[in-house]
Amino acid sequence: MPYLDDNLLVFTDLDGSLLDHHSYSWQPAQEWLNRLSAAHVPVILTTSKTAAEVAQLQQQLMLTQHPFIAENGAMISLPTDWPGKKESPTGHIIGASYEEIRHTLITLRQRYDFEFRGFGDVSPQQVVDWTGLELADAKLAMQREASEPLIWFGNELDFARFEKYLHEENLALTRGGRFWHVMGKEAGKGPAVEWLSQQYQQPSGKPVVSIGLGDGPNDIGMLNATDYAVVILGHHTHAMPLEKENGAFRTTQRGPEGWKQGLDHLIRL
Known about the structure:
Mannosyl-3-phosphoglycerate phosphatase; globular; magnesium; hydrolase; HAD-SF-IIB-MPGP; metal-binding; Threonyl-tRNA Synthetase, Chain A, domain 2
């Protein structure tokens, strides 16, 4: 088990993990956030949320000094003082842009009559109804740059065809807690976590010890890419198989309570 004074990195999902699935509160995790901050351990938000949403949450969580991974790994945003930073202020896009993804989705729907709706198809009020977010937050969630969440209304056979056609366009589907997410084939939480871990290791040459915390199928890549994984009990019935179960802890509590439970179990003080 890692110690708090190891060269730690903590990668965490938000909804259903650090944030409560219903209230979006992180209060039960605050004690650990304070402890990690005091030990100068980076807490890297790794989420399906947009950069606009994460930037706001970073301020509230007092984590603005750290990078974050947005849109399920399709974007990595680095702090302004990051050494050798070359990315634009809006972040680095991995794979296809939002405009390219939307163009492909619209074309496929028109050609094959696929039944789905993405954020780009609906009003902010519909996103509110889908997510339970406040209207202002729903508008932030619609400021997308590299991925599109959608709800599938069609049958399984059409879905298999849809996924095949996306693959032919260099796009991929990943399952989140509420939505399917379409993004570039090479993007993902796992590759983003691996890239950032290497960036942290390079200056000192000292190996980093990474911990991942997540609750949904779209977190599996992140959990497989970290040295230790906390699988937080989710509000879903999807399987959460990992490549290395011996480095994983599965919580009996949900949301930030499970987040706290996982770090209580893993990190030695």
